[in-house]
Amino acid sequence: MADSPRRRMPQGTAAAESPPDALVSLPLDVLDNILSRLHIYEVVRTSVLSRAWRRRWEALPSVDLARSHGISASDVDALLLRRSAPLRTFRLVARDSTWFVDALDDWLLYLSRNGVQALDLSFPELYFRLHSSLFSCRELTSLVLNCCRLPPAPSEFAGFPNLKTLRLKDVDVPKHGGKVLAALIAASPLLGDLELMAVKLIGDGPHEEGQSAESDNEYPRTSPDAQAIFMGRESESLLNECSAIMDTSTEDTVDEVGTQTTGNGLSNDVAHPRRWQRLDIESVAQLEEIEVTIKLKEQLHQMNYISWMIQRQGFVAKIKLEAVSTSSIATARIICRHQISEHSVRRFL
Amino acid sequence: MAAATDDAGDSNEMIRVVSSDGEHFEMPEAAANLSLVLRHMIEDDCADAAGIPLAVVAAKPLAKIVDYCTKHAAKSSGLTIEEAEELKRFDAEFIEVDTDMLYDLLVAADFMGVEGLSKLAVQRTADLIKGKTPEQNRETFGIVNDFTPEEEEEICKENEWAFQITKPPSRLC
Fold it and tell me: Which segment of the chain is annotated as a signal peptide (chain B) (predicted)?
C-alpha cells in the first residue's frame, strides 16, 4: 500500500530510492506484455510512479501502438527518441491518412538500425509506400503488413536470414512484383509461416521474362537451392524435381486445397488429384525443403482461397494465400524450410 | 492435493508436480500438456511417481494453475457456445485475485509456459492500470512515490506529450 504521508520526500534526498515494487520487478517480457496492452500515453505516464519506474518504459522491448488512439506522428518521434534499449517489436496501426509518409520513413530507418525483430504495420490506405530501409531490417523474424506498398528491393538486399513469419494483406508489390516476392521468400531460409491475402503483384508479365538474367542479379540469394529455383524457371526438369507441385493454371478459382503427404510419399488431394504430382521423398530429403509452385493464369485476378498445409516428417509449412492477384502472369515459388514443433502442428491442424 | 480430478480429458494418466515448498499436486496429462514446460518434461519421460519439481512455483499459485489447466484441458476442443461462455465466466472469476496472487500467477504462468493463463493474467493487470491516475495506480500496486513534487513535475514536463489528456482531434491517427 502506498501511504501518502511517506510519499513526499524531503528535498535534496535524491539518492533515497524506495525498493522497487513487485510490478516493476516482474520479468521484463511479462511487464512488456502488460504495458503493450495499454495506450502509449499510459505507458509513458508510468514514468511518474516512482524512481524505479522513471526510465522503465524507455527500455521495454516493444512499442505497440495498436491501442494508441489519438496519437500524432510527433508523439511517435518523441517516444522513439527517448528509447534506451534495442527495439524488438514495433506495431503501428495508422488510422489517419494525413500522416506524413516522411515521418514513417524516419521510423523505419530508426527501426532498421535498432535491430527490430517483429514489425507489424497497418495503414488506412494503400498509397503508403514503405521506405526501402525495410530491407535493411536484417534481424526480422516476423513481418506483418496491412494495406501498403512494398518498395523495390535494393540491389544489395540479401534476404531476411531469420524471418519465420511473413503475412501480407492488401499489399501491392510493384515492379517485378512476383520476382520481388519470390526473391524475398527464397532468401528467407527459415520462413515457415506465410500468409498472402489480397496481394497484388504488379508488372511481372511475360514480356519481362527476357530480363530474368538481370533480375537474378538484382536479388542475390542466400541459399544455393534458392538459386536453383530462379535459374531453372519454368523448366520441366525443375518442376519434376519439386517435392510438391501445385498448378492452378487450369482453374479459375480454387476453393480450398488441403494436402498431407503420407508416409509413402503420395499426396492426398481427393478433390483435384490431377493437380498434384507424386512427391519425390528422396529429393525432398536431399533438399530438406518443401517447395510449392503456384502459377496464376493470365487475367486471373482472384484466387478465392487456397490454404494448404504440407506435413512431412518433421518439416511443416503453413501457407495461406487468399485473393492474390496479378497484373498478368506471376509465378511465386515458395520455399519453406522450417522445423516447427509438434505443438504448432496440432494448432494448425 | 488440490487437483480437480473430474473431466480427465483424453488421457487418464495423472501427472504429479511438486511446488517449490514441497507440496504435491496431481492433474490429468491433458491438463499438464497445457504447460509447455510440463509437456516437454512428459515427452522426455521425466514425469514419474515422485512428481515434476517446479522450483520457482509455490503451492498457492500452483494450486490455482492446476485448477486452471484441469478446467481448460477438459474443455479444450469442440466447444459449444455455451461451454465457451462457461469457460469465459470461469476465467473471469478465476482471475479475480489480489495483486500478490496476480504477480505469482504472472510469473508462474510465464515460467511454466501456460499461454492462456499468461494472457489472462497479463490482460487483468493491464485492465487494472488502464484509465487510472498515477496515484490510483500507486495505491493498487503498492508503489511508493519516492519523487519530490518538483521532480514529479519535471517528469511530467519532460514527457508533456503523453501527459496531456486531451489532444486536438485534428492530429488524431
Answer: none
Q: What pLDDT digit, counting tens, does each position of B53-100 carry? A: 998 899 999 999 999 999 998 876 677 888 889 999 999 999 999 999
Q: In angstroms, what CA-CA distances link A82 with A53, A58, B156? A: 14, 6, 14
CA B53 → CA A37, A42, B45, distances in Å? 33, 39, 14
Cα–Cα distance measured from residue A291 to residue A239, given in angstroms and rounded to the nearest whole number: 10
Q: Is A146 left (phi over 0), alpha (psi -120 to 50) or beta?
A: beta
Cβ neighbours of A96 in B, within 8 Å = 172-173
pLDDT of B158 reads 86
B125 contacts in A (CB within 8 Å)?
A: 23, 34
Instruction: Name every chain A residue with its beta carbon within 8 A of the beta carbon of B171.
Output: 70, 72
Indicate the residue of A27, A94, A343 with minimum beta-carbon distance to B110. Answer: A27
Instruction: State yes or no: pLDDT of A269 exceeds 50.
Output: no
Residues A250-263 have a mean pLDDT of 33
Q: Could you tell me which of B149, B140, B56 has the C-alpha nearest to residue B102?
A: B140
Shortest distance between the Cα of B170 and any Cα of chain A, in A, equals 9
Residue A244 confidence (pLDDT): 32
- Contact state of A50 with B146 under an 8 Å Cβ cutoff: yes
Q: Which three cell numbers stand for residue A77?
A: 518521434
A22/B100 CB distance under 8 A: yes
Say whether pLDDT at A102 is over 70: yes
Verify whether the Cβ–Cβ distance A46 to B39 is below 8 Å.
no
Q: How confident is the model at residue A178 (pLDDT cuts 50, 70, 90)?
A: low
* Backbone φ, ψ for residue A126 (5° rounding): -70, -15
Structure confidence at residue A336 as a pLDDT band (50, 70, 90): very low
Nearest to B155 among A54, A75, A343 (CB): A54
* pLDDT tops 90 at residue A96: no
Contact between chains at B171 and A72 (C-beta distance less than 8 A) = yes
d(CA A97, CA A197): 22
Q: How many CB atoms lie within 10 A of CB A194?
A: 25
Which chain A residues are within 8 Å of B172, Cβ to Cβ?
Answer: 69-72, 95-96
Sorted by where each starts, the structural domains of chain B and their CATH numbers stand as 14-129 (3.30.710.10)
For A193-336, strand residue ranges (E) read 193-197, 200-201, 290-296, 306-312, 315-322, 325-326, 330-336
Q: What are phi and psi of A190, to 5 degrees?
A: -95, 0
Query: HSE (CB half, 13 Å, CA atoms) of A7?
Result: 19
| Helix and strand numbers, DSSP H then E, in chain A | 12, 12
Q: Nearest residue of A to residue B138 by CA position?
A: A2
Per-residue confidence (pLDDT) for residue B124, from 0 to 100: 97
Average confidence (pLDDT) over A162-172: 86
